Amino acid sequence: MTLENIKLDIDYVRSQFPAFKDPLSKDWSFFENAGGSYVPKNVIDRLTEFMTATKVQPYAEYPMSKIAGNNMDKATELFAKMINAKNNEILIGGSTSINLYVLSNALKKYLSPGDEVIVTNQDHEANISPWRRLSENGAKIVEWKFNLSNHELEISELEKLITSKTKILAVTHCSNIVGSINNLKKISDLAHKNNIIIIGDGVSYAPHGFPNVKELGVDFYTFSLYKTYGPHLALLYGKEEILRDLPNQNHEFLKNQYPYTINPGGPNHEELVSLIGIYEYYENLYKHHFDDTNLGILQKIDKINNLISNHEEIIANPILDYINKREDLRLIGKSTIENKNRAPTISFTSKKKSSKEISNFLIKNKIATRNDNFYAWRCLNHLGIDNDDGVVRISLVHYNTKKETEKLIKVLEQF
For 317, left (φ over 0), alpha (ψ -120 to 50), or beta? Predict the structure, then answer.
């Protein structure tokens, strides 16, 4: 059986997530996944096990401490393999915002007064504000604006912005409002051709398929683990040859121990260990759908990524088509998902009703969503959308069902 003929077993998927059986949440259609996803039982079990038996300072010689340290290392090693990085190229921090703030402080060493930093107006503020703050150190901030006619970041426009003084480029892999997946590989190639350090924000991309950071060619890449079926943590990848030369942001005695140099305070121990559960969940998904047990972790992730993308395309396109056809609704971004050109993160506004009114109506019908600017206020400003009312955002992941999308459309028809 070819991959094209294999369909995601949605009943199996949902059986792995306790939220779908819990009395509080089981009757709801959850479409707020871009704000944070549910977690599978594997993650909960790993967290419970750590807190029950090994909640001690790790890396000592007594057994509870040894197990704690070994599992912390195991979680890091597994996630490194899942995104095609080296163990010493990833760190786990409290959030994407704090990871990028610390990184921006470290990257100051590459800047002289008058050097240029390119940011977009499509990104979440986490990948804008840390870099814009470098203006306090004399950097010139250059904004790569998306095209208002199609809401896309166009590489031809980026080419016009790059000069001999451009040193850093920060760009989203996928917008949390527009939903488009930007060609990060092509952007990285352009950046490196001009000796520019590139930082990719994968927060809105990774929930729909873990990235292969080496294929993307980025220097740094980050995403939020609480949006990829885990606890409230975030991952930052950085190329070893850059990380080892960055100035220490941690305790003085750790000055030669990268990547800890970019992780002041270190990771949350119990939540770090629970990341093993994400790997176990993906491994279970693979075993349930595929027979070949001889593949490596990265190859398995690639197959699961495709399985997930195909399912998300099937359940999201009817929503996109419905919103796009309604004359009173304004869809942000592409109207169709095809060949992974956008994520199933769907934002829209109404000509007749406020986003708050629509969101409240959906909630009354047990559809979990919200209206907001979702920390992408510069994006909404460019679109001419009120930041306080914001957009209605419907964000799906692979555990959402066709039945749920049909319910959503039916409810929207009543409004």
Answer: alpha
Cα distance between residue 182 and residue 288, in whole Å: 31
Which of helix, strand or coil describes residue 90?
strand
DSSP code, position 246:
S
User: What are the tens digits of pLDDT across the range 386-397?
Assistant: 999 999 999 999
Tell me the average pLDDT across 287-302: 95
The enclosing H or E element of 391 equals strand 391-395
Q: Which amino acid is at 323?
A: I
- Kindly provide the b/e burial profile for residues 256-274, where b requires at least 16 CB atoms within 10 angstroms of the residue's own CB: eebbbbbbeeebebbbbbb
CA 289 to chain centre: 25
Task: Report the CATH superfamily, name and number, of domain 3-38+298-413.
Answer: Aspartate Aminotransferase, domain 1 (3.90.1150.10)
227 and 202 Cβ atoms separated by less than 8 Å: no
Nearest of 209, 196, 195, 204 to residue 224 by alpha carbon: 204
Cβ neighbour number for residue 74 with a 10 Å cutoff: 15
Residue type, 217: G
* 179: region left, alpha or beta (phi > 0 left; psi from -120 to 50 alpha): left
Please list the helix, strand and coil fractions of the chain in percent, rounded to the nearest 5, in that order.
45, 15, 40
CATH for the stretch 47-277 = 3.40.640.10
Question: pLDDT by residue (tens digit) across 318-347?
Answer: 999 999 999 999 999 999 999 999 999 999
pLDDT at residue 1 above 60?
no
Instruction: For residue 181, give the DSSP letter.
Output: B
Beta-strand ranges (E) seen in 274-378 are 329-332, 345-350, 367-368, 370-372
The pLDDT, as a whole number, for residue 4 is: 56
What pLDDT is attached to residue 315?
98
Structure token pair of residue 174? 């996928």
Asked whether the predicted pLDDT for residue 299 surpasses 70, the reply is yes
Q: Which amino acid is at 116?
A: E
Q: Model-level pTM?
A: 0.96
Pairing mode of beta strands 197-201, 220-224: parallel
CATH 3.40.640.10 spans which residues of the chain? 47-277
Residue range(s) in the chain whose domain bears CATH number 3.90.1150.10: 3-38+298-413
